[in-house]
Design goal:
The protein is α/β, with parallel strands linked by helices. It has one domain: NADP-dependent oxidoreductase domain (TIM Barrel), CATH 3.20.20. Helix content is about 40%, strand content about 10%. The chain is built from twelve helices and ten strands. The strands form two sheets. It has an eight-stranded parallel beta barrel. Strands 1-2 form a two-stranded antiparallel ribbon. Strand 3, helix 1 and strand 4 form a beta-alpha-beta unit. Helix 1 packs across helix 2, helix 2 crosses helix 3 and helix 9 packs antiparallel against helix 12. Bound molecules: NADPH dihydro-nicotinamide-adenine-dinucleotide phosphate (NDP). NADPH dihydro-nicotinamide-adenine-dinucleotide phosphate (NDP) binds next to strand 10 and helix 11. NADPH dihydro-nicotinamide-adenine-dinucleotide phosphate binds next to strand 10 and helix 11.
């Protein structure tokens, strides 16, 4: 495993981390969760990602129980939660001071920990002043309930506003953002955020490195049984995979698979290595419904060296989706 500073913080985070969206509490029970967490931890993963909304809190309950049973030293791993979708009542949603505080307390209980290492605003909340959110997060840091706060899928402008408010009122600045990033989805990380890395030293823990499994290549011959898109509640993802755009991407995975084969690796490993190669990515959050998938994906770091300029160009020529960086407009 390799480690890097998360943004401008002193926290050394593993380049690959492990998350529980979709899987924990639906595809994966406590015993399998423990196996996966231990596999990741033994490979050097020190960041485990979660959110209040994952399986309506069940994902955090499982992860918390797994940590307790596995008895890892609390000083050897980091764990996150995210606040936004906490329930159906008006006070259980969004980034108000109230929901942020309630969500943090509830996550601490479910995860059975005294503090959260990372706490993310899961989406921007246009109904709450950014100032209120920055203040609430800052208070949580100062009270010791969380160590670092960040955002997920915020726009560059809202992020800039958050940094400005923190600077002006001497509040705690965000450390990291959690955007989607993979061979098919590059706009935020390579486009919108490009000035923020330099200006604010923003760290990133990126999600869906395999585009929900599409970049494993397993959808090339139809939808496999037991795959994510066959799960109840994920009909929207199935529709996306079956759309014209989805069909185009699946065809591209076949061609990307040929490159991986030539390199002597697999498409999932090459796709994760592609994310790892970006220096603005602090940690790639892996997802897996089976321990074998996780074992394979954890080998990806070794493949980064295979992705030289020529291979990167070959990949580019297939997907042709390189976004313009902000600097390209000047
Ligand atoms: P991926 O895009 O890597 O998808 C993971 C899924 O792909 C697995 O659950 C499995 O699904 C399939 N898969 C993984 N590896 C393989 C393999 N080697 N061979 C075949 N199939 C494979 O990541 P996720 O979408 O799961 O995202 C990772 C994490 O990021 C989440 O757990 C969560 O912590 C975070 N996240 C954050 C979001 C945010 O808004 N901040 C949004 C989404 C995720 P299956 O076997 O069921 O087909």
């Amino acid at each position: 495993m390799e480690y890097t500073n998360l943004g401008r913080s002193g926290l050394m985070i593993s380049k690959m981390s492990f998350g529980s969206w979709v899987t924990f509490g639906s595809q994966v029970d406590l015993s399998a969760s423990k196996k996966m967490i231990k596999t990741a931890y033994d490979a050097g993963v020190n960041f485990f990602d979660n959110a209040e909304v994952y399986a309506n809190g069940e994902s955090e309950r499982l992860m918390g129980q797994a940590f307790k049973d596995l008895d890892f030293g609390r000083d050897t791993y980091t764990v996150s939660s995210k606040v936004f979708w906490g329930g159906e009542k008006p006070t259980q949603v969004g980034l108000s001071c109230k929901h942020i505080r309630d969500a943090c307390d509830a996550a601490l209980k479910r995860l059975q920990v005294d503090y959260l290492d990372l706490f993310f605003c899961h989406r921007p909340d246009v109904y709450t002043p950014v100032e209120e959110t920055v203040n609430a997060m800052s208070d949580l840091v100062r009270s010791g309930k969380i160590l670092y706060w960040g955002t997920s899928e915020w726009g560059a402008q809202a992020l800039t506003e958050a940094f400005g408010i923190a600077e002006k009122y001497n509040l705690v600045k965000p450390t990291m953002e959690q955007p989607q990033y993979n061979i098919f989805e590059r706009d935020k990380v390579e486009g919108d955020y490009s000035p923020l890395f330099k200006t604010f030293g923003l760290g990133t823990t990126i999600w869906s490195p395999l585009a929900s499994g599409l970049l494993s290549g397993k959808y090339a011959n139809g939808i496999p049984k037991d795959s994510r898109v066959t799960l109840p509640g994920y009909e929207w993802l199935k529709a996306r995979f079956e759309s014209e755009e989805g069909a185009k991407k699946i065809e591209q995975t076949v061609r990307l698979g040929h490159i991986a084969k030539k390199l002597g690796t697999t498409l999932p490993r090459m796709s994760i290595a592609w994310c790892l190669k970006n220096p603005n990515v602090s940690s790639v959050i892996l997802g897996a419904s089976r321990v074998e998938q996780l074992e394979e994906n954890l080998k990806s770091l070794a493949d980064v060296k295979l992705l030289d300029g020529h291979v990167m160009e070959e990949i580019e020529s297939i997907v042709q989706n390189k976004p313009k960086a902000q600097s390209d407009f000047r």
